[in-house]
Input
Amino acid sequence: QVQLVESGGGLVQPGGSLRLSCVASGFSFSSYAMYWYRQAPGKAREMVASISTDGGRPDYAASVQGRFLISRDNTRNTVFLELNNLNEDDTARYFCNVFAFTSSGGQDYWGQGTQVTVSS
Output
């Protein structure tokens, strides 16, 4: 079955950096665009970044443009999100996402998320 496992979150001071990882399994990773979302308490889930199958077309939400960097390693079935110059508004749970087709059909898959807390 499809599994997405995020890691790398934690507590960081404003201005700090983190690198999130998402290891995927159960589908043909290199055939699918991958996405990072985040959800802060009391707020809707929002897409933060996306990356094409070969990593050539990253896209970012305006709120993180220039500070976050998405990348992928298709040999390791892993997508990364580098978070730089963090501020308290970046505090949220970060989720990895893919819309993938399996023998059960196509659907959205989510990991369990990893918590990022920015605080002094």
User: Anything to note?
Assistant: The mean pLDDT is 96. DSSP finds no helices and eleven strands in the chain.
